Amino acid sequence: MKNLIKSLFFILASTIYSFQLIAQSDDATGLPGDNFDLQGALEMFKNANSPEEFEKMINTQDNHVNNLDLNEDGDIDYIKVIDKSEGDEHAFVLQVAISANENQDIAVIELEKNGKESAIVQIVGDEDIYGESLVFEPKGDDENSTSKQRGPHVYYNSDDIVVVNVWYWPSVRFVYGPIYHPWVSPFRWAYYPAWWRPWRPMAYTAFHPFRIRYHTAFVAAPFHRTVRVHKIYTPARVTSVSVTTRNRSAVNNYRVNRKTTTVHATNGNRTVKAKKTTTTVTGKRGNKVKTSNTKVKSNRKHN
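Request: output the structure for the sequence above.
Response:
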């Protein structure tokens, strides 16, 4: 009798867990970006001591940031990091070698120094991978917004929005140190570090729960702050014809179902115009997946 009860309990628990995984997969878009976590990459950049270590961290299986297989060969893709910089502006491009002749940008981490001991960072997901340019940044939480915490780790811009100062992140201090030379990954197609061994991609229902732990510290940015470094990156953006062709239908479906409307939003004690984007796509099981993102347009410069 006890064994029967245990068996029934196990079956019930397994069923509940299965339904939880299905529920968690409802935000899947069917785009390649489902398999690379932008917030997770920014967390790795925050904890790394250098861009070289950052590259290793995003390619480490146990960190569950990368689940990409863009060339569909059954193995995870290695992501190389390339620093395209001018002065104090750094664009850390996250790129995959699709073949011996093609590369595809996945995202770019944009880092700008805006004071003697002040810097801001955002990560931008490539529009061919995510369907649109997705922008995330460190979250300025309520604790940081108290008077006791208004120190070197956080400041307020002129629009009363909390902006995290990332100057004291180890990777940022290294980049702005006297001995730093822009990191350009030495690896390429069929030439990878000795420590790296590709693994099989996980199903989205298995990969997605690992991503959740990274999402509390980073939020969708209300607008693009790192405008100077973005101008450096834009003309250097690299895309792959084979990746674009393979995902054209899914990306077009995503974009066709994206509706942008102008709304009014409260920003501090002011009412400003904002663009609200709502995208509805059909998931793999025929379910409708709806996502919304509101971006406030601002022309004000940071202090």
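The CA atoms of residues 54 and 74 lie 24 Å apart.
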